[in-house]
Design goal:
The complex is a heterodimer.
Chain A lengths: L26 H6 L14 E8 L5 E6 L1 H5 L4 E5 L21 E2 L9 E2 L5 E7 L2 H10 L2 E5 L14 E2 L17 H7 L2 E9 L11 E6 L6 E5 L4 H12 L6 E4 L15 H13 L2 E5 L14 E9 L5 E12 L3 E2 L7 H4 L5 E10 L13 H18 L4 H7 L4 E2 L4 E2 L5 H12 L11 E2 L5 E12 L5 E8 L4 E5 L8 H13 L6 E5 L15 H26 L13 E4 L2 E4 L6 E3 H8 L3 E8 L3 H6 L3 E13 L4 E12 L6 H20 L5 E2 L4 E2 L17 E6 L23 H13 L15
Parallel strand pairs in A: 1-13, 11-12, 15-17, 23-24, 30-33
Antiparallel strand pairs in A: 1-6, 2-5, 2-7, 3-6, 4-16, 8-17, 9-14, 10-11, 10-13, 14-15, 18-19, 20-21, 21-29, 22-23, 22-28, 25-26, 26-27, 29-30, 31-32
Helix pairs in contact in A: 8-9, 8-16, 11-12, 12-13, 15-16
Chain B lengths: L4 E4 L3 H9 L4 E4 L5 H6 L7 E4 L8 E3 L5 E4 L4 H5 L2 H6 L1 H8 L4 H6 L2 H6 L50 H7 L3 E6 L2 E6 H4 L18 E7 L8 E6 L10 E10 L2 E10 L6 E2 L1 H7 L2 E2 L2 H11 L15 H19 L15
Parallel strand pairs in B: 1-3, 2-3
Antiparallel strand pairs in B: 4-5, 5-8, 6-7, 6-8, 9-10, 10-11, 11-12, 11-13
Classes of the chains: A alpha+beta, B alpha+beta.
Chain lengths: 757, 345
């Protein structure tokens, strides 16, 4: 592992917790069952249950709801539908959450029109879960069914240029040179069409909301499964006209999200609406099938054309993509831009379009856009390397970009070349026979080795944190951020402990409560960086207060020392110049007589740096596959994933993130696909038995390398985040390895048995 | 409320009497399929006759040299039973290729025979399904049907029987013992499950009220030449796209006796006795295996192209038969069902 950690000017490295593989602080609570998820919280009074009824049709109108039949069942409290939903906020903007795309957000139970199959059409509230589920199952609803269209391939003519409207979406880069001429004249070229269909996030924990009706006006504690409590709060507050005090959102633990929980899901709307109408505590939990009713990685068609000169230098890059979206919103992903960041050519052309179908709006799903675009790009680059007679790794290094050609800006840091070198060394790439179909194992299986690169944004969002140091020397830091399993609890504890030189055991980090300082949704790989900087700033403010108090002590050893010249180590404030000039934090607190010290910290993007620089994380994935050619079976027997993502705050949790990402990439390459029945406009494999993700038996050796980067421009704390980058490159590397093994280039995911027959 | 009554029967005849004396009753074994069906609202029994206390969980040797598998022995206990492992390793290997350890620990042998199809549409009340609601139509004929069958299908149903265990039981020529209102009878395994025809709602030939009490294995277990080859979308917890259970008796390179069945392709484990006869008395060779495989799938019908549709199963099925026969002859493959989809040459 590369451990070239230097000291960026803005971070003290005089503590021993950052960069250490420290166990998750919440681990014991999770494995013992003490950690409570949204559907597990107790409420103060009796609890009623809401069960969601989903539309069986993709398009049409509800003509009749036979609610009276269900209301006659003893114990059924209410049937909510468009017929009796209360009057709520009128304008679209009330329904727009922080990460909503352009268009008109879906309003649950707002009108009788059906816009997608499995659209929620009613909520049945009863005194027990079983009763609510039963009553929902016998609720008769009549529909006027209209003809739907869910077929992307036959709707290409209706495509339109993807409009702006979603935060973070980058339109395709401008073209350069003369693409067609360059392509026509180049000696080496490839053209291919790439396809994957819809994929659903499928976190283990079902979307769920428990509303604790506190019996004090409209005050509620709303326990929600989400990746961002503040985003849910502003959504709920705007729609229902509530104050922040009335709509407190709590989300202590999130059983996986992967993007599904970025936007507020409809169960939280339904639960809050029912609680307000019935003035009662309510729990609403989706079932597994309903987990396929929400956002998904959209079915996308891509076309790539690449050309290189005799020496193997890229001369032409064209990347076009067409994705599906709903009739009511334009979900946009950044799909093609990666081809203009990872590589450069004098002649380029980029295009990204959408087509509206009678489906729900897609959603960000782990490395949204990049997972899609980089699979096609890195497959085509691989193909061109063979055409140009170059080793795939050599070809990538030959066409390496040292500046970001898409915006003509320097990278704040980019050690992708070291990822290639260190990954190749660990993998043993030099032993690779370049010829396809040339390698076999001892049992005769075809062996293929493939490589591919990935790239993701290193972005910072506005975040805030609060630190409280009590007289007993315990530091409690809080921020309304989220931990969907990423390790946020432990790395923020590390950041706080490091900043004030306290042992981990004297620091508590709390999250997931809108009574805490605001933080962005957990997505985009920005939490470690954004919230980490806010935590550090809050703790530094405490540090400044401590120094002032320390200097009030008679004959203070720190008299006249500036904050910049003080270090916080082992529970002491010490002068950098002379560490014997030292005061214990406990002594400062005792002398001050203060019961506690409090401070807020904020962080956010640096607009000047963003104008000047391109900020990205990178990775290189090396993969070995074994293919049983007669039977079409593919096994990924080895992966080396080398990641350059700035400073790694905790190699243990970061490695877990990259392991999970690698498995995700494998899953995308070999298994994941939601089957759309176009006759019904409905996904049909909506369960864990038929929507396949890997089991333990599918996962073999995965090696993670962190190539650390010293980068205090991309982030004030040197961190780029690892949530997305680990999955990139993996799917393309697998497809490339399959080509190396078999000589067969598959451009359609997933690479199921039938594709190699 | 979806309420039901439940009786804990203690003997087979008592269970049959209990079930037949209630309308809308169902037998409850391990519950690994029935309880799912109830949660999905696919079936709503008003009474359950629980079989958990019946003394039918034993595995015992038979006087004719065979082995009796109690209907209430769990799949796990059957797979790991020393006599099964020693004399019927094909059955042991096949059971372990199915489901997950948790499911195998709960699922019973009788229930394994009677589990329902995994066709997407059978489980989705929003879509027509002749098996679930006769006369509504078959959504799988034109929709995604990757899990569906290519042999013995009908225009009313192309569902498959999802069991792994039953594929081995078909090859082993097991006999199903049942008890009903009119007493006991036996059913040859090949006659137990049926093809859909125009009555896809009936998976098997059990008569009303009949209860599976045991599965009898004949003496021949093919312990020297066998294999279960399962091809699926992931290495565990996935139903077979195609599977093949083979048992051979060999004399040198000559196949004296051959039995095999194919799973994942039909409404029942698919046996082709003419194809088996093609192997007997012949020298094992790839050419022979290819001819046999071609014979099995000669009448096959695929329902659409591409990975969402099942036409690929015809070619895959042929290749699987060739490979499985080779494995059974050579016995040089990995027996661990979780190692590489059990498909190593």
């Amino acid at each position: 592992m590369s451990q070239t950690i230097a000291t960026p000017p803005t971070v003290r490295l005089d503590s021993d917790v950052i960069g250490k593989p420290i166990n998750r602080t919440e681990g014991p609570a999770k494995v013992s069952g003490a950690a409570k998820y949204a559907a597990e919280f107790d409420v103060t009074g009796p609890l009623w249950y809401g069960y969601i009824v989903s539309s069986p049709v993709a398009k049409g109108k509800i003509t009749k709801i036979h609610a009276e039949e269900v209301l006659a069942i003893p114990g059924v409290q209410r049937v909510f539908s468009h017929e009796n939903v209360p009057s709520l906020a009128w304008f679209d903007r009330a329904y727009k959450d922080d990460v909503a795309p352009g268009g008109s957000p879906f309003r649950p139970l707002h009108e009788p029109e059906i816009m997608f199959s499995q659209q929620p059409v009613a909520l049945v509230v009863a005194e027990t879960f079983e009763l609510a589920r039963y009553a929902a199952s016998v609720l008769r609803i009549e529909y006027d069914v209209e003809k739907h269209n869910t077929d992307l391939e036959s709707s290409i003519d209706e495509a339109f240029d993807a409009p702006k409207g979603k935060t973070g979406f980058l339109p395709p880069p401008k073209p350069k040179g003369d693409m067609n001429k360059a392509f026509a004249e180049a000696p080496h070229k490839v053209a291919g069409e790439y396809i994957h269909r819809a994929q659903h996030h499928n976190p283990m924990e079902m979307f769920a909301t428990t509303v604790d009706w506190l019996g004090d006006g409209k005050k509620m504690k709303i326990y929600d499964k989400t990746q961002g409590a503040p985003n849910v709060q502003q959504y709920i507050a705007k729609i229902f006209g509530l104050s922040k005090d009335e709509a407190r959102i709590i989300s202590k633990y999130t059983g996986g999200g992967f993007g599904a929980g970025l936007r507020p899901q409809y169960q939280v709307f339904l639960a809050v609406m029912a609680a307000l109408e019935l003035e009662h505590s309510i729990r609403v939990v989706m079932n597994r099938s309903q987990m396929f009713s929400m956002g998904y990685r959209p079915h996308t068609l891509q076309k790539l054309r690449l050309a290189a000169d005799d020496l193997g230098h890229l001369q032409a890059i064209e990347h076009k993509a067409l994705a599906e979206t709903s009739q009511f919103e334009n979900e946009t992903e950044t799909v093609v831009n990666w081809s203009a960041i990872l590589y450069d050519a004098p002649n380029t052309n980029f295009d990204y379009q959408l087509t509206k179908l009678d489906l729900n709006t897609p959603a960000d799903m782990r490395a949204p856009g990049a997972a899609t675009g980089s699979f096609a790009l890195e497959s085509a680059i691989d193909e061109l390397s063979y055409k140009a007679g170059k080793d795939p790794l050599e070809f990538r290094l030959l066409n390496y970009t040292y500046e970001d050609p898409s915006e003509n800006k320097p990278f704040t840091s980019k050690r992708l070349d070291d990822c290639y070198h260190e990954g190749a060394a660990r993998f043993g790439w030099e032993k690779r026979n370049p010829a396809p179909r040339s390698m076999r194992d001892e049992k005769g299986l075809l062996v293929g080795w493939g490589v591919a690169a990935g790239c993701w944004d290193a972005s910072t969002q506005k975040a805030a944190a609060k630190a409280v140091l009590t007289a007993d020397g315990h530091l409690t830091v809080s921020s309304a951020t989220n931990d969907q399993g990423a390790g946020t609890y432990v790395i923020m504890t590390q950041m706080a402990a490091q900043t004030l030189g306290l042992p981990m055991s004297q620091v508590t980090f709390n999250l997931g409560d809108t009574d805490m300082p605001a933080a962005p949704v957990q997505g985009g790989s920005w939490t470690a960086n954004s919230v980490g900087a806010a935590v550090k700033n809050a703790c530094q403010e405490i540090g400044k207060k401590l120094l002032k108090l320390a200097q009030k002590i008679d004959d203070s050893p720190l008299a006249g020392v500036d904050f910049e010249d003080v270090q916080f180590v082992d529970g002491h404030l010490r002068a950098n110049e002379d560490i014997t000039r030292s005061v214990a934090i406990a002594d400062v607190l005792a002398a001050s007589g203060e019961a506690k010290l409090e401070a807020d910290g904020k962080a956010g993007p640096n607009p000047l740096n963003m104008l000047k620089y391109s900020m990205h994380s990178h990775n290189a994935a090396f993969v070995e596959v074994k293919v049983d050619e007669d039977l079409g079976t593919i096994h990924v027997t080895r992966v080396v994933n080398a990641v350059a993502a700035g400073r790694i705050m905790n190699p243990k949790t970061a490695r877990s993130q990259v392991l999970g990402g690698t498995v995700w990439g494998l899953s995308m390459a070999l298994m994941e696909e939601t089957y759309l029945n176009k006759d019904f406009g409905r996904y049909v494999n909506h369960n864990y038995a038929e929507y396949h993700i890997p089991t333990n038996a599918d996962i073999h050796k995965i090696d993670v390398i962190f190539v650390e980067e010293e980068d205090d421009i991309a982030s004030s704390i040197g961190v780029k985040g690892v949530g997305e980058i680990g999955m990139l490159g993996v799917a393309a590397a697998i497809a490339n390895a399959v080509y190396h093994a078999t000589g067969k280039r598959v451009r359609e995911l997933p690479l199921t048995i039938d594709k190699l027959l | 409320m979806n309420s039901f009554t439940l009786t804990q029967a203690t003997a087979a005849d008592e269970a049959v009497r209990d079930l037949t004396s209630h309308d809308g009753a169902a037998y409850l074994g391990g519950g690994t399929n029935l309880v799912d069906l109830m949660k999905y609202n696919l079936t709503r029994p008003t009474h359950l006759t629980s079989l958990g206390l019946l003394p039918l969980a034993d595995i015992t040797s038979l006087p004719d040299g065979g082995l009796r598998l109690g209907a209430l022995a769990t799949n796990a206990d059957t797979a790991w039973h020393p006599e099964v492992e020693k004399r019927y390793p094909l059955l042991s290997q096949t059971i372990l290729a199915g489901a997950t350890p948790q499911l195998r620990n709960a699922a019973t042998n009788g229930g394994n025979l009677n589990q329902r199809t995994r066709c997407y549409y059978f489980y989705d009340l929003a879509t027509p399904c002749n098996k679930r609601e006769p006369g509504t139509g078959c959504s799988a004929l034109t929709g995604p049907n990757r899990v569906c069958g290519v042999l013995g299908t009908s225009e009313s149903c192309i569902a498959t029987h999802p069991s792994d265990m039953c594929v081995a039981l078909a090859a082993l020529e097991a006999v199903v013992r049942v008890q009903g209102p009119d007493g006991e009878r036996t059913i040859k395994f090949e006659d137990y499950h049926r093809l859909p025809g125009d009555q896809p709602e009936a998976d098997n030939t059990l008569k009303a009220g009949e209860l599976v009490t045991a599965i009898d294995l004949p003496e021949e277990g093919y312990a020297d030449h066998f294999t279960y080859l399962k091809l699926r979308d992931r290495s565990s917890y996935a139903f077979a796209l195609v599977s093949v259970a083979v048992g051979l008796k060999m004399s040198g390179q000559t196949i004296e006796k051959a039995r095999f069945a194919v799973g994942g392709v039909a409404h029942k484990p698919w046996r082709d006795q003419e194809a088996e006869k093609m192997l007997e008395g012949q020298t094992a060779s790839p050419d022979l295996f290819r001819k046999v495989a071609a014979k099995v799938f000669a009448e096959a019908k695929g329902y659409g192209e591409g990975s969402l549709h099942n036409s690929f199963k015809i070619e895959l099925g042929k290749r699987a038969i060739v490979r499985a026969l080779k494995q059974a002859v050579e016995m040089e493959y990995e027996v661990n069902p979780n190692a590489f989809l059990n498909s190593n040459p």
